Every structure is written in structure tokens, then in C-alpha cells.
């Protein structure tokens, strides 16, 4: 379980490094998005028959990082929409 959390943090950090621009995400958000990316990568790698969902392999790692980059993009767009809505409500 601790290894899964560490892998999620590493995957989240790599995704933030790969994604261009500045991300306004906390460490917890990075960890959670990295964990979600890990699960997605594990599921896809398992579906392709390269290993178990909890087994660390190259394909699963690559897919996990790509999924985490996409999830960070979605999180940024959602937080941007919330900020815009709050700014309109204040005016």
C-alpha cells in the first residue's frame, strides 16, 4: 500500500513536470491524481495482458503518466471554471 502511494506521488510529480505551464495543485491533489493515473495505467496494462493491475511494468507506468497528465489538465480546467464562476458571482 505504501509503495502504491509512493508510485502515485512519483507519477503525479512526473505528470506535472511533463504538462506545460504552471499548475495550481496541492501536494495532496498531485498525489490523488497520480494515484488515479496509476490505477488507470494498471487497468489498461492488465487489459492488454502485460501484468496484474498492481504490478509495476513499463507499459503500465507510461500509461499511468499519460493518464495523470490528462487528469491534471481536467483538474485545471475544472478549477479554472470554478474561479471564473466565483469572480462573476462577486461582481
Automatic annotation (TrEMBL):
It is found in: Cell membrane. Keywords: Cell membrane, Membrane, Transmembrane, Transmembrane helix. This is GlsB/YeaQ/YmgE family stress response membrane protein. InterPro entries: Transgly_assoc (IPR007341). It comes from Kocuria oceani. It is a multi-pass membrane protein. Belongs to the UPF0410 family. The keyword Cell membrane applies. The chain crosses the membrane at residues 25-49, 56-75. It comes from the Bacteria.
Amino acid at each position: 500500500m505504501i509503495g502504491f502511494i509512493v508510485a502515485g506521488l512519483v507519477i503525479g510529480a512526473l505528470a506535472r513536470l511533463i504538462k506545460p505551464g504552471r499548475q495550481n495543485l496541492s501536494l495532496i491533489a498531485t498525489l490523488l491524481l497520480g494515484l488515479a493515473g496509476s490505477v488507470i495505467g494498471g487497468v489498461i496494462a492488465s487489459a492488454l495482458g502485460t501484468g496484474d493491475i498492481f504490478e509495476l511494468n513499463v507499459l503500465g507506468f507510461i500509461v499511468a503518466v499519460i493518464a495523470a497528465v490528462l487528469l491534471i489538465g481536467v483538474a485545471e480546467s475544472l478549477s479554472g471554471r470554478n474561479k471564473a464562476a466565483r469572480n462573476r458571482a462577486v461582481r
